[in-house]
Write a structure and sequence with these properties.
Structural class: alpha/beta
Shape: globular
Number of domains: 3
CATH class of the largest domain: Alpha Beta
Strand order of the largest sheet: 6-7-5-15-16-17-14-18
Helix content: 25-40%
CATH architecture of the largest domain: 3-Layer(bba) Sandwich
Bound molecules: flavin-adenine dinucleotide
Strand content: 15-25%
Radius of gyration: 21 Å
Low-confidence stretches: none
Number of helices: 11
Length: 444
Amino acid sequence: MRAPLTADIEADVCIVGAGFTGLWTAFHLKELDPSLRIVVLEREFAGYGASGRNAGWLSPLVPGNRRVFSRSSGGREAGIHLQRRMLEAVDEVLEIISAEQIEAAAIRSGNVVVARNEAAMNRLRSRLEGDRAWGFRPDEGIELSAEGVSERIAVAGAVGGLFYPTVARIDPGGLVRGLAEAVERRGVVIHEGSPVETIEAGIARSAAGSVRARAVLRCTEGYSVDVARDPRRIIPINSSIVITDPLPESVWAEIGWGGKELFSDAAHVFSYSQRTDDGRILLGGRGNPYRFGSGTGGDGRVDRATVDSLVSRIRAMFPATDGHGIAHAWSGVLGVTRDWCASVMFDPGSGVGHAQGYAGHGVTSSYLAAKTLAERVVGSRGGDAALPWAGRQTRSWEPEPIRWLGVHAMYRLFAFADWAEERSHARRTSLFASIGSRLAGLHE
Ligand SMILES: Cc1cc2nc3c(=O)[nH]c(=O)nc-3n(C[C@H](O)[C@H](O)[C@H](O)COP(=O)(O)OP(=O)(O)OC[C@H]3O[C@@H](n4cnc5c(N)ncnc54)[C@H](O)[C@@H]3O)c2cc1C
C-alpha cells in the first residue's frame, strides 16, 4: 500500500481516484508537460474500483449513443471521428502496454457476438449497418453464419453472429498496476488510503490533509455520489462476474474457443464472457442492476440470485460445463449518466473537472476521455480535446424512489423481451425491448 496523505501540500494538478481515468489523465498530462507536479489521491488503493475488477475488454465501442454525441457538437462527422478515435485508441493502449513493459497479458483476440434467435440476428445486422455508417471499415466488423460462430465457439442455439477483429483483451489488474507504476516513474505522486471529502476550486480536502492545486480533477466514476458536486448526474450500476473452475480438455473439445475470442450475446440483458488463459469460463452481466440510493456494494460480494442467474447462462450456452463448479464471483460498479453517454468537463475558471459515465465500456474510453481531459487542462481546444463528449453536461437522474423504480423497470422490460423473443421464436425485436431502449435513450 502506498503512503496516505498526511499533510497540507501543493501541486499543479490534483487527481481524485486512481482507476484507469485518474491514472491515464496523469499519464497524458505528463506526456503533454513533464514539468507538471501531479498528486493522485485514492480512497483505497490503485485499481480498487471497476478498473481492477472488470473483464478486460479493450473494445472500440463508443461509451454511449453516437447519434447523441454527434448532436452535442460537431454533427455526424464528429460522431464518426469519435468512433474512429475509439478504434485507434485500442492500438494506442496496446502500444503503451508494450512500450512501458506492463504485464497485462494483452492479446488481440477479437469479439464474437452471438445471436440465439432470429430477432437477435436481425438486431445484429442492423448493428453492423450502424457501425459501418458510423465509421467502421468492412473488415472491422464481419457477419458470421451459424457455422462461422461454431467454428470459433460452439454456443448452444447460435443462429449467427458478428466478429469484431479489432477488440483486444487485457488483464485489468495488470494494466492498472502497471499504469500506476508508469506514472510514478514520470514523477507523479500517488497517495492511497486517502479519501477525499470535498472538491472545490483549487483544493481537494481529506480528513488528514489537503492538496491545493490549480486543477482538481474528479475521476471517481461509479463512486462519485459522495464527492460530486451534483451526485444525481451519475449513478452506480452493478456488474457482476462468475468464473468456473478450470475445465477439462474433454469440455474444451466440445466448446472449441481455441482463439480465446471475447464473447457476448445479443440478448437485451447483456452478458459478456471469455475463455481464460487457465482454462475457465468467465461470464459477467448485470444481476441486481442498481442499489437504492446509489449504493456501491463495497468490497464486491455478489448475492445468490445474481450468481445463480449468471451460472444459468453459462449452463444454457455451454451445456458441456454442467456439473463443473464455480470458483469465484465478484462485482463492481460502473458509472452511468442520465443519457448513458460519457461526459468530460473542465472549467478553466475554477480549475475543476471530471471524466465519467462510460456505462460499462470504460477500458478503452477511459484512456481517450482522460486524453480529452488532460488536453483541456493544458488549454488545448483542438485534437482530442474537441471530441464530442467534451463539455457535455447531462441532465440529473430522478430522485428516489423514482430512480430505483425506473432502472429496475428498464431491466425488467429487457428480461421480459428476451423471454418473449425466445418463447415465440420471434423474428423481430420485442416491443418491450424497444420501450426499454427508448427509456434509456440507447437506440441509435
Ligand atoms: C464487473 C465489471 C466488468 C467490466 N468490464 C469491462 C470491460 O470488459 N470492458 C470495458 O470497457 N469496461 C468494463 N467495465 C467498466 C470499466 O471497468 C470502467 O468503466 C472503468 O474501469 C472506469 O474507470 P475509472 O477510473 O473511471 O473508475 P474506477 O476504476 O471505479 O476508479 C475510481 C476510483 O476512485 C476512487 N475513489 C472514489 N471516491 C473517492 C474519494 N472520495 N477519494 C479518493 N478516491 C476515491 C475509488 O476507490 C476508485 O479506485 C466493467 C466494469 C465492471 C464493474
